[in-house]
Amino acid sequence: MSVPYAKLPRWADYGLIPFINLLVAFIVAGLVVLLVGENPFRAAAILIEGAFGGGQNIAYTLYYATNFIFTGLAAAVSFHCGLFNIGGEGHAYISG
Questions:
Q1: pLDDT tens digits, the chain, 96 residues: what are they?
Q2: Nearest Cα to 30, choosing from 17, 39, 22, 21?
């Protein structure tokens, strides 16, 4: 018999775990950039400048993120109903 896991506190489930995930993702991305031979901090600055550097950059970021946001919402509806949805790729393809 296996023992069920204890439920995490809300602050850990919604705050700490996502923060750790982002931190690990940035570390792995930084290591990849470092492996290529470039400065990871400069790459992060270019990424942030390209996404949020001005009005037009923010508009492009929102334009391209909208499709992914709605695809995630479509999958969330089916997951909330207890169903498994394999149509996410089709949603993203049709939405643009």
A1: 567 778 888 888 889 999 999 999 999 999 999 999 999 999 999 999 999 999 999 999 999 899 888 888 888 888 888 888 777 777 777 766
A2: 39
Q: Which residues 6+ apart lie within 8 Å of 68 measured at CB? A: 92
Q: For residues 36 and 59, state if they share a domain.
A: no
What is the residue range of 72's domain?
54-96
Instruction: Report the domain count for the chain.
Output: 2
Kindly state whether residues 61 and 43 are assigned to the same domain: no
DSSP the chain: -PPPPPPPPHHIIIIIHHHHHHHHHHHHHHHHHHHHTS-HHHHHHHHHHHHHSSHHHHHHHHHHHHHHHHHHHHHHHHHHTT-----HHHHHHHH-
Residues 26, 37 within the same domain = yes
Position 1 in a domain: no
